[in-house]
Design goal:
mainly alpha, 131 residues
């Protein structure tokens, strides 16, 4: 699977929306857990896939509630990625993933730092017409 363009689309959506709203959820047109298992990912693709885990978990909370989200496949994917160290490249993202397990409040408090990380890593890059 070529995950470069889908993860870039997600990151640009986060930059444009500055949250994990509907436009960002729709941009997760890939399975973040599958992408994170790929070898040789570049830093930005890994960031997009890691954030995809957060977006999917956030959507679970929005569609049901926090307690239900903790029982979801999206949460299991998030936990597996954490246990396997697949998100350790980005301490801010890893902290948000860990906060998801702690409480809904801590999860939401961790998200502004994730948005800042996206801005730091991606904002200066040229947008491709293919993205």
């Amino acid at each position: 699977m070529d995950a470069v363009l889908p993860t870039r689309r997600l990151l640009w959506a986060v930059l444009d929306e500055e949250d994990f709203g509907d436009a960002v959820v729709e941009a997760v047109a890939f399975d973040p857990a599958v992408v994170l298992r790929e070898e040789g990912l570049d830093e930005v693709t890994r960031l997009g896939a890691s954030i995809g885990l957060l977006v999917n978990f956030n959507a679970c909370i929005d569609n049901a509630d926090y307690e239900s989200a903790l029982r979801s496949s999206e949460y299991r994917a998030l936990q597996t990625a954490l246990e396997d160290g697949r998100c350790s490249t980005f301490p801010v993202v890893e902290a948000a993933l860990r906060a998801a397990a702690a409480s809904e409040q801590l999860f939401y408090e961790a998200l502004p730092a994730v948005y800042a990380e996206v801005c730091f890593r991606v904002a200066g890059q040229q947008r491709s017409s293919d993205v």
